[in-house]
Fold this sequence. Notes:
Shape: elongated
Radius of gyration: 25 Å
Oligomer: single chain
Strand order of the largest sheet: 3-2-1-4
Helix content: 55-70%
Keywords: Membrane, Transmembrane, Transmembrane helix, Transport
Main location: membrane
Structural class: alpha+beta
Number of domains: 2
Family: Belongs to the cation diffusion facilitator (CDF) transporter (TC 2.A.4) family.
Number of helices: 8
Transmembrane segments: 12-34, 46-66, 78-98, 114-134, 154-176, 182-199
Number of strands: 4
CATH superfamily of the largest domain: Cation efflux protein transmembrane domain
CATH topology of the largest domain: Alpha-lytic protease prodomain-like
Membrane topology: Multi-pass membrane protein
CATH class of the largest domain: Mainly Alpha
Amino acid sequence: xxxxxxxxxxxxxxxxxxxxxxxxxxxxxxxxxxxxxxxxxxxxxxxxxxxxxxxxxxxxxxxxxxxxxxxxxxxxxxxxxxxxxxxxxxxxxxxxxxxxxxxxxxxxxxxxxxxxxxxxxxxxxxxxxxxxxxxxxxxxxxxxxxxxxxxxxxxxxxxxxxxxxxxxxxxxxxxxxxxxxxxxxxxxxxxxxxxxxxxxxxxxxxxxxxxxxxxxxxxxxxxxxxxxxxxxxxxxxxxxxxxxxxxxxxxxxxxxxxxxxxxxxxxxxxxxxxxxxxxxxxxxxxxxxxxxxxxxxxxx
Length: 300
């Protein structure tokens, strides 16, 4: 099951590379036809899309490698490195766009063949939007940080492309040439914000952030429901590593309980947690009743 999920993730990552190359070609054509610096900005972001898609493909493929002696917990965190790299590429693209915007402010020019160029750009944006929707849905289902980061970046690209199309259209209709570099600069600022946010979220994954509070409450409820026969569960901790969720806690049982009985309780809890989280990796430390802390997750 896990192997099939990883194969699907790799297939989606390959699809992102193909779609990104197609969108880059279309947006470059739109810029070449019009000479608009705003459309150039849009094309520059698509170059980042291609690089990010390739990085996501490498990360998804590497993260699929099984655990080994040097990486006993697997390679799932490789996807976070891809997301950090993508955020850094976005920031670089934004700075390049700001530079081109400044040049256009100093020497503005009217876009040529605006209608055709905008139609091509609109088609490229529609292609991006469709792929981003699919990628986000599948990325969430597979809990792939690399795919979800790629999808968020594509959605950011779609939003900025819409703004660019509107801005270049206004330039063509009004003749206000300064609108073109202004739209490009606003596009760059939006991309810059997206890049910083993506880097922050990805670094959080590398720093072993805990699961969301709502998810933690659900985990605590499952432990309490399934731990019949035990006395208490405490020191519940969690962290994400790519598509995996690592959970560990201490389970206090009566001192007279046999190893088999306590093991059966642990099996029951693990089965319920994996049914809820699917890719959970669970460690339970069994303790005698003298270790109870009267806090954490009471099970009686």
